[in-house]
Amino acid sequence: MRILIAALFLFLSLASSQAQNITLNASSEVKILMNRYGAENRMSEFVDGWRIQIVSSTDRRKIDEMRKSFIQKFPNIPIKMEHTPPYYKIRAGAFVTKLDAMGLLYTIKQEVPGAYPTKDNKISPSEMVGIF
């Protein structure tokens, strides 16, 4: 049994050392494109991500009441109000992936059953939860 464990350990250590010696040779055209892509991304002031949509309505008073109620129930969750005519929207959080947003969604759905995750392509990197 000890010999089997020792052999398995030796095999795994050799396999992991081989995997760490990978080199990537890219053509100069690919390197130029990757550098350009990186530079354009650094210049962008917004990133794509996910938020939790709390409510959407054309009634501004309803939105204001919902905002106050949400802040009372969840004072530590940042919210954002948006106006995309004719709709007013309240969205909570800012996440890199939908999976990250689902944790908050579970908490919010206890009080707001109609909440759902939504894609947002105008999130400031400083708003993102858990990365910057």
Quick synopsis:
With 132 residues, the protein is an alpha+beta fold. Helix content is 45%, strand content 26%. The model has no long low-confidence stretch (mean pLDDT 84).
Blueprint (SSEs and pairs):
Elements: H1 2-19, H2 28-43, E1 47-57, H3 60-73, E2 79-84, E3 87-95, H4 98-109, E4 116-123
Antiparallel strand pairs: 1-3, 1-4, 2-3
Beta strands, count: 4
SS element count, helices: 4
Strand order of the largest sheet: 2-3-1-4
End-to-end C-alpha gap? 48 Å
Which stretches are low in confidence, meaning pLDDT under 50 for 5 or more residues running? none
Second CATH tier, the architecture of the domain at 47-126: 2-Layer Sandwich
What general outline do the C-alpha atoms trace? flat
Order of helices and strands: HHEHEEHE
- Biggest sheet record: 4 strands, antiparallel
Structural class: alpha+beta
Question: What is the CATH domain class of the domain at 47-126?
Answer: Alpha Beta
Strand content is 25-35%
Describe this structure in words.
This protein is flat. By secondary structure, it is α+β, with helices and mostly antiparallel strands. The longest helix is centred in the N-terminal third of the chain and has 18 residues, at 2-19. The protein has helices spanning 2-19, 28-43, 60-73, 98-109, and strands at 47-57, 79-84, 87-95, 116-123. The protein has a four-stranded antiparallel β-sheet with strand order 2-3-1-4, with helices on one face.
Labels describing this entry:
4 helices; alpha+beta; Alpha-Beta Plaits; 132 residues
